[in-house]
Amino acid sequence: MTTECTQKTFEFHALYRRDVVAEFNGGTLTSDGGALLLREVEARLGVIARFAECFMDYRKPEWVEHSVYSLAAQRVYGLALGYEDLNDHEELRRDPLLAVLAEREDVEGEERRQERDRGKPLAGKSTLNRLELTGEEVKETERYKKIRLDTQAVDRALVDYFLDSYRRAPRQIILDLDATDDTVYGNQEGRFFHGYYGDYCYLPLYIFSGRHLLCARLRRSNIDASEGAVTEMERIVSQIRARWPRVRVVIRGDSGFCREEIMAWCEANQVDYVLGLAKNSRLIAAIEPQMSRAQARHQRTGKRARVFADFSYQTLESWSRSRRVVGKAEYLNKGANPRFVVTSFGQRAWRARALYERFYCARGEMENRIKEQQLELFADRTSAASMRANQIRLYFSSVAYVLMEGLRRLGLAGTEMDRAQCGTIRLKLLKIGAQIRVSVRRILVSLAGGYPYQNLFWLVYQNLAPPVEN
User: Measured between alpha carbons, how far is 168 from 365 in angstroms, rounded to an integer?
Assistant: First the structure.
């Protein structure tokens, strides 16, 4: 049970002859002074603005105190700054710096209609919660939940963010597909027990291109990992080709996506693929000569040995045609470790070893991006009762990831943190103590003088500054 703190002064162990005393009387302070850099990213890219446009607002304008942009920004910035739960916003709603980020003109909440809201410029948890709980349709009789999210518009926006990150059309785009577990602890809609993960969970589908997030689709867990992948690829590839008709698109995934439906779709739509292929007795027999050579090399050197095989293969029933398969015959201290991939690339485009080691294995980087979003931007906070509400929560996390990726790509370019993960960026760049003073003419944010990364902050600021016009 929570209790209300009434103590004003806190006495700690003395430092030699001096008492050490703490009081909550420092004035208007924030621990997120570096978040002003995120606001500059938003000014450059319009990530939250585009996301806010995906909401349909059915509220009566004369009663609106918090715009859709302000609500969406408050939630997205909150996630980026480490505040994963809506309950956090009962206190955050008083933060004038977060009000600045959310573009609230009345940053101190002095002009709120209700007396009880004075001093609270931002929305509370109940108001923010309605963004998630509004259904696909808003009825005339609905009193509170009146801001509906167009999920298809968000899907398009995620791809647009990616496309807009390029100044010119790239020669090739690689789309990485993967499924992961999202453990749930309640009786949420769509949750099932998954034997592989050994728990009740969702099975979201992610599609990345490098560090760019293009799709985060929440799914039930009683399905095949590849279910719905063709639908997502169709819309993403068509959106990419609408802007860049000649770009080469490559699909990359593990053996969970090695399905006839996916490969046949790729072949019919001039999309290349490199997919993991689950081993079986026929495949193992096909690379037996190479495995014997690898074993002999391992016994001679005592080190890991790899020999690659390149051959045509067709399943007995599930595949409609013969396809190129690359087999890795690897021998380790613990024994044989065969692996296989199937691809649409010919031998001229990619030799066997390079295809496996340089191209296919690079997909492992995507797993780091999924962990980054789930653990550091709280994509696994899917505790709402309905799948729609949990999908909307996943969208908020996804937009927070896109915003942080924009900071990494634009602001941190050329610095020692240009490959840092979101949690590290938050800790070293955004979590800066600051005092806030508001006057008629300006909002002065006095950052902590002891902040240890001031040179990094200056570099990021310079990177995000608009170009000087001649």
Answer: 24
